[in-house]
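Continuing the series of single-chain predictions for the mutant panel. This is the parent chain; the variants come on the following pages.
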Amino acid sequence: MTQNLSITAIVENTAGTMEAAGEWGLALWIEADKHRILSDTGQGHTLLQNARLLGIDVATAEALVISHGHSDHTGGIAALVGAGFHGKTYIHPEALHDKYQREKTPPHRAKGIPPASRQALLSKVSDLVESPRPTEIAPGMIVTGAIPRRSTYEDIPDPFFLDENCTQPDPLIDDQALLIETSRGWAVITGCGHSGLINTLNYAKELIGEGRIVAVVGGLHLFRASAERIKATTENLRAFGAELIAPCHCTGFAATGALQHEFGSRVVALRAGLTIRVSEA
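Parent structure:
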């Protein structure tokens, strides 16, 4: 298991330091003892710039984990590969499909992996690891694959579709999380959490058995959620006993505030340029 786990937001909606730039999207740099993992890549506008300012060489990552196939999480893949990344990429196969977001009037917006990033991915297809089911990166590091949707209130409120005419809703089954075991318990790292935070944590518990969840880090996709859903999420989150909750990206101000009200100092909003250390007491 990991003794020292640190997670740095290279890309996030808002800057947390004077050096970093904000961008709608997410990319998390994960150092787990000797392992270096990049979770998502943002849109691609700030990944390399912010990484350089933070003293991080993203090309040295042994693995890239793609949380789902939206452009604000995959747009930096082309830049990453161009910078010399040679590690494995873990991705649910459905993430490679076309995706769209409905606008008020056509044309609707392409939301899938941008062409340059798709080409970069396919150019290194031998290093692609499809993860529709739980997949181990290293001992104590698991990509969940598709997350079962069981809670009655965790829906997908956004107008996402699989076709450019926006007639076929996208169930976003490519949404997946990363689980890392530390000496204090497991960290659950999400991209957008489209499956729902409680669904994600319940599935994580299935996968880790008797292990405890000590940290929840990432986008929780509650920025368009109803007050009722935010309330239900915060109430049900308490049962997992996480010592650290680090919301970011698509969590939203209202949900972040609700989490801070419910959990106090256990909540640390993660912004571009900031680092959290999960394994510290």
